[in-house]
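Quick check before the chapter quiz. The format below is the same one you will see on the exam, so make sure you can read both the input and the output lines.
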Amino acid sequence: MSWTRKHLITLEELSLTEIDQIHATAVAFKRTLSRSVKKVPALRGKTIVNLFLEPSTRTRMAFDMAAKRLSADVISLDGASSSTTKGETLRDTAQNIQALQADMIVLRHAAAGSALYISRILDIPVINAGDGAHEHPTQGLLDTFTMKERLGSLHGRKVVILGDILFSRVARSNIHALVKMGAAVTLVGPSTLVPLWFTDLGVKVSYDLRSALADAEVVMLLRIQHERQLSGHFPSLGEYTGMFGLNKTRASWLNPKAIIMHPGPINRGVEIDSELADGDRSVILEQVTNGIAVRMAVLYLCAGGQPELVMPTE
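Here is the expected output.
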């Protein structure tokens, strides 16, 4: 099956075959990252604009590095340096970028649906790098890619996502991908942040942290999304940490082979203690590294490349 999508907006709309195609392409590109010359000429002559109208470290840098590893020219624009500060609309900003002969836009924006909106206006590919509390598709792809590297097939694997699910775009993208891949997903956290309606997405909801962790093979921690919450959803950070923070005692409830993940940024001492974030079971930095290969795959495929044509030389 060939790749036919021009845009990557959500994981909800991708098939399992398409997710597997992205992962397989990322495997091929990851081999190039260990070479002395890390570039491939796949997107030579293309110009990619990273339009990040929300703060970002890992995602923005990974997209920048991924595009450069593919030999594309990269222009990065943030909210402070764009004309949106003067009142220009997202539509006008995006159309001006296209008029300047850009070949692709990678967009991060605080409004859910923003990437879909401009994808319907522009003729060039649009990659969603996070739209409000809606989705963060490349994060979901790199997270599941990392799980597959460690565990093999995710069919039947038990994955716990712990924290602020309600306001997390990362949680939504991971849920969509993991359910398609056959994983058994349990969401855990305060009832105000993990409402029962999430079960409609094919996952379990639990408020009993010990029982949820007992048979987990993966536990993914999420930070509290203060910037998206309009009111308090729990009494204090201290009380959240006291009930749901992953510390050494609670980590002892895990299967000894379970891996610990976090999409970042980490609030150390809140959702996870430092010794666990930096410990042997943590794959947090592997997630960051894999983010380059996965985003290389996404940029390459949405620019018109095909999975079977990726044959990096050793």
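If your answer matched, good. The first helix runs from residue 16 to 32.
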